[in-house]
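Sat 14:20. Reprocessing the chain from the morning session after the first attempt stalled halfway. Input below, unchanged.
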Amino acid sequence: MSKFNLILLGAVLACCTPMDSMEPLQYRVIICEDADYSATGKFNPMMDDLKDYLPFFDKKLIFHAAAIEYWTKAPDGSDVLASGIVYHPINKKSKGVIDMMPKARLHKNSGSAEGLFSEEGMCVLLGYTVIVPDLLGVSSSRHMTIPFLMVENTGRVAYDMRRAAAQYLWDKFGYKLPFETTIMGYSLGGSAALAAQKYYETHHANNVKVKEVNAGGGTYDLVAAFNAFARTGYSDYAAIPLVILAFNEYYHLNLDINQIFFGDLAIHYEDWFGGSHSSRSIMGWLTTDLHTYMHPDFFKPKEEQNDEFKKLYPLLVENSVSEGWRPKAPIYLTHANVDTYVPRECADEAVKKLRKAGANIWCAYYLGDHYSVGATYFIRNFLRLL
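Finished this time. C-alpha cells:
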C-alpha cells in the first residue's frame, strides 16, 4: 500500500474512530493469525525458561495476533513507516491493556513482519490485550540506523503504535482501548518502558493514563552506564557502539570515529552495525573486553577525554530517563545484582534521581545474570498481573 493510500485510509477511519481524545492513526495489516493455548511453544525462547509456570496461563484462551504497519516520526522529524504486533483475547473479555516494549533487535529482519510470536506478547496468555511496537531500525523501518536509547523518539514511536493498535482493535473487534495502561519491558524494553511513560505523561496525559510501569534490566541512566563500563572495561553487549552511532547519525555530530573506536571496530562498524548481523555475531567480533575496541580516551576521566567524547556527554544526559521529569505513575524495577549487559548503577541512579524528583519508585535486585533475571522479571510480573 502506498503512503497516499495509507493516508487516505486514515482519513476514512477518522470518520468512525472510537477514540475520544486520542487521534486515530492509519495502519496496514502485514500478517495476522488466531491461535490458542497450544501455540505457546511459538513464543520461544523465553517460553522454555518459563515452562514450569504454564499453569498460570489460560488454557482455554483463544487470541488474535496481528503485525501492523503505521506512520510515525524518525528522530529528525521525517515520516517513517514502523511496525509492531497487537495481541488480543478473542473468546474472553480482555483484562486490560499492556504496552510492552521490546528487547533489542539488531538484525533488520528481526521485527514483527518476520514473526508474530514474540515473547513480549506472552501476557496475552493471562487474558490481556498487549501492544508491542518494534521501535525503529528493524522490519518496516529496516533502512534506518537504530535510534538506540533515544528517549523522545522511543516514546513517540510507542505512542503512535498505541494509536494505530487502538484503531485496529476497534475495526477488527469493536474493542475500545481503555484509557488506562500498564507499561512493561525488559532490557532495552526496560529503558523504553520509562521512555514511553515519560512521553505519555508529558505529552499525552489527556489521552492515556499510565497505571504503573514494570521495567527490568534497563539502561535508564546513560552516564552511569558509560562510567561503569569505563571502570570495568567489560561488557557482554554492544550497547556503547549502538548509542554512539545513533547519536552521531541523528544529532549530526560528524564524529571522528577513529577517536572513538579502536582496532577492527573503527574499520568495520558500518558493516557490523548495518542491520545484517545478530548481536551474537557482533559480540563474537568485538569480544567482551572494551579495551579491544574503544579508544583509550574512553577509559580516562571525563575532563581528560578527547573532544569527540565530550560531544557525547550532554546527549547522554538528555537521553537518560532518570533526568529532568517527575513520573506520576508508580515504577517497579527489577535488576540483576551483577549485570554485565546493563550495569546495576543504571538502576541505582534511576532510583536515586527519580525518587529525589518525587517519583514512587522501587527496585528489586536478584542474584543471577542479565538473562536469568529476565526470566525472574517475567515471572514476577505474571504474578502481579494475576
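The two ends are 40 Å apart (CA to CA).
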